[in-house]
Amino acid sequence: MNENTLTVLVADDDVTNRLLLEAILRKEGYDVIHAEDGREAVEVFERERPDLVLMDIRMPELDGYQATELIKAMSGDVFVPVIFLTANSDIDSMVKSVEAGGDDFLAKPYNRIQLQTRINALMRIRELYSTVRLQRNELIQHQKRLERERQMAKRLFANIIHTGSLDQPNIKYLLSPMSLFSGDILLAAPKPSGGLHVILGDFTGHGLAAATGALPVSSIFYGMTAKGYSITEIVTEINTRLKTILPVDMFLAACLIDIDTTTHTLTVWNGGLPPLLVYDTRQLAISLRIPSQHLPLGIIDGESFSRRVEVVGIHQGDRIYICSDGVLETQNRQGEMFGQDRFDALFESKLAPQALFDTILGRLSDFQAGSLQQDDVTLLEICYDQSSLEQRAGTIEEEAGGRGRLSAAPSSWRLGLTLTADLLKVLDPLPLLIQALMDLQGFRGQRQQLYTVFSELYSNALEHGLLKLDSSLKANASGFVEYYQAREQRLAVLSKGEIRIDIHHQPDAGGGRLTIAIEDTGNGFDVNSALLPLTENLGHAGRGIQLLRSICDEVTFQGSGNRVEVVYRWR
Amino acid sequence: MPVTSTVSASGKDITIKITGRFDFAVQNEFRDCYHGTSPDDGVSFTIDMHKASYMDSSALGMLLMMREHLGGNNANITISTSSADISNILTVANFQSLFKIS
Q1: Residues in contact with B79: Cβ distance below 8 Å, sequence separation at least 6, in sequence order
Q2: Which domains does chain B have, with CATH numbers?
């Protein structure tokens, strides 16, 4: 049998009719099979699967209507045309044929040309039907595959861009993407020296393309924060990377903040996001507003990129708010935007601080009132609560340590380093130094302690030794801001002086003994005042030395106070 | 027409006027206005947004594409607007450091 030859089933209890039709069809080049009643028609159909059926109406066993219903049900989504053979074309039988699933009628006496035309027309429909079915199946397959890939990508994204550090009692946030993937990112990571880094960003556009840019941002943000880099360095690195990978018309509007629990300061870099707000919970009013001061990330590179940050003091209980422009551009049914004024007004209603976040969300959803979300919406509230922020620093993962020797046996080594003024002006050597130590010895689980020791020793040498800053300024929180402004100004013009670091490690009873000496070329300081009993030295300023004493086994000041040596034992 | 452009008699000044929403929907019309110009042609562009009602971040992206096409730092583009909302969007993104805004 030729593959392309169509097979026609003729179901008629009248043998003359069957033979007549068979003769006409064979002459036209069709293969013909036949059945003598309705039941046989169904059986033959099931066995032979013909391409077309000519069906008499009145037959024994099953009539043509019943047989057609069964045949149509059997063919599923394959279109098998059924032509009813009728003695007369009365309306009643026509209606019944259509109800049973019939596709056409042929009235006796049979005419060859009429039969051929009907068959051709129905075969064209059948072909169209099968093309549509094929395309529909391909589409369904394609859609299933796409959905699988999207779900997998979503899980992958969720693992890489985890928001783990956000799930703390003093942080509330809303992340409301308009599609499966968000063009907004919100990441938080504890700093090794105590406190928290946060980035809230909004990529141009929405969906997968926008979300892809979030991958490098999150790896830089988490990696550099864990290694102890400042947000100035992190924002510069993110900008450089995004400038390389993003198309010209895509960028990241972002706000990075550093909440420091040691100095009670908030450091902010805002490029392209709505103003960051600080709500003073004692005055029940906005006490601070830091608007965007830079181009968004990924637009310009090199010298013209502005890494300048704003440093402000912050008090226990203050609440910090950052949002993406999706919040302010939330539209109501009239197409009107929520806007900065309505947002600000929420803070003027003297609400209880703990109700603020939910009130904002409530007002936004009332305003939107069922109209379609137009953009990714992200809102963050952080309550400056020193104890919960410090606790978080204790849970820092060894995220940055992986590359080093994991469990090297303690060995004996010595490392000396001289940092000149030229270098100190442009580089914070601590992250590099800590990473070098981790790689040399693999101090597992000690990164945070070591970071604190080095950071206290180094800031003492730089700020008091070389920059001659007066730590009494730091007696209160607002003095802190002044102090750090002076630090920045003096560092920028530093022309002479050195910091010498000498690190000596020896194996010691199942662990090691690390001796760190840091010496600066400054005048030293009043050793006696730093050695005052703890009770008289509880301000911000004395904290560094207390901290060193609590971590290290020995702390000694040498020379005129310009050389400090500590011994740190570990196992 | 949401985007129209006019060329001065000297051919050295092109004004692109945007009416209504400045967003991704007018991408092609907007690009057509500057695409035939190369950085060496010495053409000054003015983007007239007095009649624009809104711009979104994709419009900011379109401005960056235009600036890049016209030679980056050497591009001569002035954005002219009287709408507080549009000025605010440009200021938040600090576009005054890349474009002349009047």
Answers
A1: B46, B47, B49, B63, B90, B95, B99, B100, B101, B102
A2: 3-101 (3.30.750.24)
